[in-house]
Design brief:
236 residues; alpha/beta; Elongation Factor Tu (Ef-tu), domain 3; Rossmann fold; 2 domains; 6-stranded antiparallel β-sheet; 6-stranded parallel β-sheet; 5 helices; 12 strands; 35% strand; binds flavin-adenine dinucleotide
Amino acid sequence: MTPPKPYTAKLEDKAQLNERFVQYKFELVTPNELQFSAGQYVSIKVSDQGVRRSYSICSSPAVMHGFELLIDHQPAGVGCTFLENLQFGQEIELLAPLGVFTIKPDQEETEIALVATGSGIAPFLSMLYERLQVDQDMRPITLYWGMRHANLLFWEDEFEVLTQAFPHFRFHPVISQAEPAWPLCRGRVTDCLNTHEQPAGVGYYLCGNAAMIADVSKTLLAKGVSEAHIHHEKFY
Ligand SMILES: Cc1cc2nc3c(=O)[nH]c(=O)nc-3n(C[C@H](O)[C@H](O)[C@H](O)COP(=O)(O)OP(=O)(O)OC[C@H]3O[C@@H](n4cnc5c(N)ncnc54)[C@H](O)[C@@H]3O)c2cc1C
């Protein structure tokens, strides 16, 4: 993997996806190319005192002149506020690429299950671009994404395009406080995982808050899944 180094990048665009989530697009300034593996993250300097915050890259590793981030603004702390106040064209300092939360080669895992809650979806969009579009990985890939309310979901168009183009990709949004009319999985992501057969050889990739990771790991271990096939990125 490429060793991390310091970069500067400027804010090129941002999109308010809903009341809570914002997608940021950065263009690299120096150096002007970033090679990374899907699942890696950047560490951004968010204060003059040198406070840093980590954010997973959600864009495709095929795009090397910039990167995109998906931010949950609910914590409303120093990191969120720094990003929220950035002006277009303003430069940031970061270290990248960081982390080892990447998909393992196919001789080790014959199927892939991606399990996210909230902003934990960020590295998975990058992984889907990498697996499906860049590497043309033919392994079955299932994405489970938990959110409290359906109106907080986003990227449905992206997932729909991928579902249509790649029949071996399946997407299950899971809503914990669903309206009665919600037609898909409801409850916690583990409830949805439990309704599907989990064959041997699946590699599980979990991303989100600590409670979700503990809950899903416990469920998988109880089902006999080996610890070696449970990978996670804890956001907090
Ligand atoms: C490897 C890694 C990758 C990450 N990737 C992303 C990402 O892609 N998108 C993203 O939005 N965040 C991501 N995070 C979380 C991010 O780094 C910050 O922790 C988060 O943005 C909050 O920072 P803050 O400075 O705004 O809040 P802080 O000032 O740190 O905290 C403010 C308040 O919010 C609470 N809080 C802090 N973090 C969270 C959280 N994640 N969820 C709920 N409450 C919280 C704190 O207890 C505190 O009360 C990642 C974290 C790690 C370690």
